[in-house]
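Please predict the structure of the following assembly.
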Amino acid sequence: MMNEQRDAEVPLEGGSPFELRVGLSKNVSESFVKQALETGDVGFLHSFTTGSAVDGPGIRLVAWTAGCQFRCLYCHNPDTWNMMNGMAVPLERATSLLSKYGHGLKVMSGGLTLSGGEPLMQDRFVVKLMTATKAMGIHTALDTNGYLGERLSDDELEQIDLVLLDIKSWDPERHKYVTGKDVGPTLDFARRLSQRKRAIWLRYVLVPDLTDDEDGINQLAAFAAGLGNVERVDVLPFHQMGKPKWEKLGIEYALSDVSPPARELVERVCEQFRTQGLKTY
Ligand code: SF4
């Protein structure tokens, strides 16, 4: 029954995550969504994109999930906030796409990355897709804000080779201001990944006058270094590529006049992480 409700008209592969996609599951029933979330047999996805070199090691196939509980002021994919904007994709449709690219991903030392949105809004689908991917011998990465990390059991964490953990701010008040949510669960998930010896690439979006607080970054860098499992830190300079989406969706965008960080600021922040012995990119 679930397959009947998928939107077969929408191509699974998008040109880019910057493509605006809305309302693709607006006609699915509440019971269908509930069943999909409970079983993980169907995921709600913005799109798949191929050829990414920045979302994990090697060349990646990236599945962009729909649904996020954060409301980051700098989000460049606000159309992925609402799960119903994504298309309903049965697990077997996703795995057949993986089979198509599996050989190439292995040759290019890459794999599958689940990003979003926030993938763990659909934790059962994440686990099923990651498990199927690992069974094909393909590397798995999860790009997450970490807030719902407790939804994954220790065994399920073993299906994820790498966590791209987005920490939005060290300071609790600033984190809440930037995202609308507390930072505590994300830091707890980072500690748990450390205890379980699961690799982390830490991601930090750098926005001038919003997330560039020197003291906070020093504390975050010390925390990350102390975990012992952070393989690298990606300092991601804020950009305005998501601005058209905010405008088209009619959401008030607080950062419309903010410029990308100057090279000197990016270098200062990278150096703060390097001082703690971490590798930055
Ligand atoms: S966690 Fe990611 S998808 Fe969610 S609001 Fe923040 S930037 Fe956007």
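Strands lie at 42-52, 60-65, 87-90, 111-115, 139-144, 162-166, 199-206, 230-237. Confidence is low (pLDDT under 50) at residues 1-7.
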